[in-house]
Amino acid sequence: MLFDPSWAYYRETSPGLTGKEEISILDAILRRFIPNYTQTRDPAVRQRCGLLAGGTGLALNLLLFAVKLCAGIMTGAISVTADAFNNLSDAAGSAVTLAGFKLASQRADERHPFGHGRIEYLAGLGVSMLILLVGVELGKSSLEKIFHPGETLLSPLAVCLLLASIAVKLWMGWFYAALGKRIDSSALCASAADARSDVLATAAVLLGLLLSRLFHVQLDGWLGLLVAAFILRSGWGAAKDTLDPLLGTPPDPAMVADIEGLILSHPQILGVHDLVVHDYGPGRRMMSVHAEVPAGGSLVELHSVIDRAERELGRRFGLQAVIHLDPVERDDPRSSRLRALTEELAREIDPAATVHDFRCGGDGQVAFDVVVPYDVALSDGEIRTALEEKLRAREPDCRPMIGVDRSHVL
After folding, report:
1. Domains of the chain
2. E-assigned strands of 233-362?
3. pLDDT of residue 233
């Protein structure tokens, strides 16, 4: 994917730099401006990193705007002038990033008890909208150039100015991506995608001017149109990356496995289910999970175990964890037999289906929840009906009460 805005893409494509070299260079920059720069989970450190990135982007983009505007005036090329205003919009994007990090660092208050961390996602979305706007405007200018071509002049000074701007944008793309990865910032990843698009835009404009002079053809408009399409694609990808956490995404499967492993490391906890992670901005995550414990266990002892597990989750993953106790009867032969049967029948509906909160009552009553993936085509009602029929076919006296959940984990 040419315009993948994720930090991994930029890291893999940084020419001539190994991972260790990138880390060393970034550390040297951060060490100069940010005390305790390695403590990236500290909101104050994240804010300083964001302010450093935003201030750097604002200054450099304003400089590039002035440089390219001079080059556009010298060449008479509308594509160069449009590229200059592209950098002006980037400067506005840097100002949005600055404001986003500043606002996101505000403490929780009575109207926003979970803090203001999601403002950073909104800042990234704002940058994405600016990318899309620039793509549309550059496309319009390129179409005008195609239908109304004009003479362009290319001087050595203009070429040097455009090459210098490409070098600056390459560095900015690397800096945003490396820092975005370091502090896990979608806003900076969006800015990195924009910087890479700017490199291609300026390179295409310069190539068009050179070919036009060498072969006396007007390629400026066509190349500008192609670059506009790439910029629009980049903007859409960056917008999606910032919208996803706002809308809500499932937790990372590797993190889920680690969380479950930590909880189940306590022998008193027999199983976990209904794990949900709520993202209120970088470094502001809450999670809830149900933990199955022996129904005959000491409530005081089990409460202490759960408290200890919650503190461990907070220290290891930076999560504010809430664990709900689900007492289950594992020593009753009838309950164990019916649970095993229910799990077997649930897997007939979908191999990934699981059963939890299993309880047996009087008069043959059996209550439980079945969890199925979101991509199961059957509706909740159809799943419930199918499982009831299967259970009654095997256990005619059974009176099932079934709840259906959709898995939150990919």
Report:
1. 7-247 (1.20.1510.10), 253-406 (3.30.70.1350)
2. 271-279, 285-294, 319-328, 354-360
3. 78
